[in-house]
Amino acid sequence: MALSTAKTNAGESLHCSTFASRYVRTALPRFKIPEQSIPKEAAYQIINDELMLDGNPRLNLASFVTTWMEPECDKLIQASINKNYVDMDEYPVTTELQNRCVNMIAHLFNAPIGDDETAVGVGTVGSSEAIMLAGLAFKRKWQNKMKAAGKPYDKPNIVTGANVQVCWEKFARYFEVELKEVKLREGYYVMDPEKAAEMVDENTICVAAILGSTLNGEFEDVKMLNDLLAAKNAETGWDTPIHVDAASGGFIAPFIYPELEWDFRLPLVKSINVSGHKYGLVYAGVGWVIWRSKEDLPDELIFHINYLGADQPTFTLNFSKGSSQIIAQYYQLIRLGFEGYKDVMQNCRDNATVLREGIEKMGYFDVVSKDSGVPLVAFSLKDTSKYTVFEVAESLRRFGWIVPAYTMPADAEHVAVMRVVIREDFSRSLAERLIADLGKTMADMDAHAGKKAGHDHPAKKSVHEIEKEVTTFWKRLVAKKRSSMVC
């Protein structure tokens, strides 16, 4: 979540009022609780008017998060929005639905459990919490092993690619674990398994592989990583395990890439997280973390409470939270079934193909995403001498599209790309419209650049200059939200 401030944009008042003044004449303070209550109609109108300045979630192509669900599921969410998920004794059916989801997902990921056995896992707020829990389990198991061997246990590390999301950096910083990153290189934007295996040492609590990189949607080669680590473990006597961050790809690979070995079929994969609110097709925020077996989750991390009416085991970073997303996940799993999810994912992949081909035909861009992986299209400019992807993204917003532009991590910071995520609600007609609007944008960019003819081309920007440009772009974008009515 973003840190809050009590600072307004230039020219903005510290008070707010709208035509809700037909209900109340006194302007309301922005950052202090008003002295008096106001009519419910006025409160609704004031908030609703400000929210009109937000973007349209359906046109937010930066986000992997689900922005549409069926009305029946919306009804279930509304009906359960006041249930506290943690109160298992009061809401036993909700707890049962969570357990069913855990078992369904565990079987989907080929966990070594029988049909009558219970899987080990838990629902979380999202993949960030799931990763924290999985990381803690790895850290505690490693510490226990090192203590038993009489060895130091104060310098644990995790090996990842530089393409990991910030939640891994948070885990490392919050729980005092060194993050050893495999750097990227131009043309190869995921973790190199061979380099990852080389970086592993006795203090490595796990290697984290990404099934669906945020940068370009690519699946990392978990099978090769498993084989390399197995060989190194046999040589050294270590037992370095793997965690798969399948936040984006966990609800994709089983349905359209069933032959791909990335999950519990690989013996070193001990835990997997997945985001239900991404391709699990549920509104934010729900995630899941599944362990291979009970032995992979240290019992000392599980708390038992009885002050809600019965003994209740819990392993979460937070406590109270709503039940609605858990219920929505169960709805999607039984509503769609295997074939339904497969249809949705194949349709997303087909629409991504339409978009990729349309972008390639323009001739302006190099597509850096892969044909297989998360259904998205990431692309960079072939010629950056006249304008940048940040300027293209900003210009594209006049049509309502929110397309992110960003630089790659180390050591590929000089590569700047745009990315379009294809979700269930991004239809083929929207893909065709985006292609048309992007074509208009590029024609306008060329015309604008032509007016500057005769001027020297700008010198190639340094990494620092590119990072500064990214920061300036997004700051300007946020500021524009306060005055733009584009949705």
TrEMBL record:
E.C. number: 4.1.1.15
Pfam families the record matches: Pyridoxal_deC (PF00282)
GO molecular function: glutamate decarboxylase activity; pyridoxal phosphate binding
Catalytic activity: L-glutamate + H(+) = 4-aminobutanoate + CO2
An example Gene Ontology biological process: L-glutamate catabolic process
Keyword terms of this UniProt record: Decarboxylase, Lyase, Pyridoxal phosphate
NCBIfam families per the UniProt record, alphabetical: Glu-decarb-GAD
Protein name: Glutamate decarboxylase
Source organism (scientific name): Setaria italica
